[in-house]
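Researcher: Please generate the 3D structure of the following complex. Treat every line as part of one assembly.
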Amino acid sequence: MKNNRYIVIVGCGRLGSHLANQLSRAGHSVVVIDSNEATFSDLSPDFSGFRVSGDATQMAVLREAKLNKADVLIATTHEDNVNLMAAQVAREVFGVPHVLARVFDPKREEIYAQLGIRTICPTSVAAQMFLQAVADDTAEQKGSQR
Amino acid sequence: MKNNRYIVIVGCGRLGSHLANQLSRAGHSVVVIDSNEATFSDLSPDFSGFRVSGDATQMAVLREAKLNKADVLIATTHEDNVNLMAAQVAREVFGVPHVLARVFDPKREEIYAQLGIRTICPTSVAAQMFLQAVADDTAEQKGSQR
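Model: Done. Output below.
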């Protein structure tokens, strides 16, 4: 049984570096790709994976990250187009079984779903949580007025 | 019993406008503040609240939004400092009972908590969801290998 996964993360911003650190710590083999090498400084000292410097929409860069070996690809950049491109290539060209992408524009989630890409939209999630918090506060106030 | 709340939303970006539309639709009295009037175009045609154009770190602007009447303030801008400032002033000066803020830097969440401000960090939430998705995929694969 294989617990250790080969995980490629596109983008080493706040989300990407956090995921890379956590997944590396959990014992997975992690490769992080970012076109801006300076972002790699957000990787923690105990990060045991690899850093690939380059544009993740370029085949050569994805090959360097050994995407063909990957169990999981996570696209985390701030650009929906970059995430969509990297996710699609991972799925169609490299046959990566699990492809996840951050998506900023909720309207795009349907397109991704049709392409077999699992998405997480931080804006939708945050909105949901704020609406829930307002609902909770309202309920709490009602309770205390009884 | 009062179901209708007076809610002031700072920032009319993707998150702010979404919340404004939803909360207005739910019957609340909503005021949205943004320094960039162009963002108000993201409000839906049935948005029944008010738009205040200005910098939410300025007292005059917050007064114009009648923050003293507010039951809830939600700070949603892309600037942690703006959100913190607006949230703090709402709490301390205007005595708004429920203050929620988006925070990008997870390290700041503790400061907010000490100030009695409830925070939601989209990056942390998204990271949690991605890690869960990877864990689910791993579990699924284990199951199918049995």
